[in-house]
Design goal:
With 220 residues, the protein is an alpha+beta fold. The protein is built from five helices and eleven strands, in the order αβαββαβαβββββββα. The protein is 35% helix and 44% strand. A six-stranded antiparallel sheet has the order 1-2-3-4-11-10. Strands 5-6-7-8-9 form a five-stranded antiparallel sheet. A hairpin with a 2-residue loop joins strand 2 and strand 3.
């Protein structure tokens, strides 16, 4: 009878053991990914002089992906309050795909180091207030790419655009603003598109592969 009872209990014991081991591995992987995300966020904040930054690694299991493949599928990075010369950017987001990570540094130094990124999309958001401050005139941004500026107390239509990576604003034949967005190290040199929304504008572009200067801004 005792032998039969033991035989009945061993599958349950095995199941419990498997569940406990799986939970421990899951917890260890989650902790490692959290540490890596915090390291990326801290470096981005320092490299961009942002007021805050965050990073999300889309990979599970994270440690296995890095050790087995040396890469993760996707990393999303966000920096808020980023200076670009005289202009303060509301937010810069970088969505990076096929991110190569140094295995040795992750294991030996517990440090995440990005070595290459196959493709990334950068999106810059700027609100009307900092544009007005740099332009020296109140600027209004409306949907449908409608822009106006108050020049010498008179509200006139304005033209806002992006030339390469330079954000420009002109009104009444006068150039009010010209700021190279690449002054922020996370903004790559690529052909940008501009969309104006109520109270803000966004410029974005996709680059492949990602240049070393942008990688250095994202990872130590």
């Amino acid at each position: 009878m005792a032998g039969r009872g033991t035989r009945r209990r061993w599958p349950l014991r095995l199941l419990v053991t498997v569940v406990v081991v799986a939970a421990l591995l899951f917890g260890a992987d989650y902790a490692a990914r959290q540490v890596a995300q915090d390291q990326l966020a801290a470096h981005i904040r320092q490299s961009t002089s942002a007021s805050s930054a965050s990073a999300t690694i889309h990979s599970f299991p994270f440690v296995y992906d890095v050790l087995a493949h040396g890469s993760v599928t996707k990393v999303d990075a966000t920096a808020d309050g980023v200076p670009a010369g005289p202009l303060r950017l509301q937010q810069v987001t970088v969505s990076a795909h096929q991110v190569q990570i140094d295995r040795h540094q992750l294991v030996a130094d517990h440090r995440i180091h990005v070595t290459a990124i196959a493709r990334a999309t950068a999106t810059v958001t700027v609100t009307a207030a900092p544009i007005s401050a740099v332009a020296g005139a109140p600027v209004s941004l409306s949907s449908g790419n409608v822009v106006s500026a108050a020049v010498h107390g008179v509200t006139v239509p304005a033209v806002i655009g992006v030339e390469g990576q330079t954000l420009t604003l002109s009104a009444a034949g006068v150039r009010l603003l010209s700021v190279d967005l690449k002054q922020s190290p996370v903004v790559p040199a690529c052909a940008m598109t501009l969309v104006v929304r109520p109270g803000e504008l966004q410029v974005s572009c996709t680059v492949a592969p990602v240049p070393p200067s942008v990688i250095a801004a994202l990872s130590q």
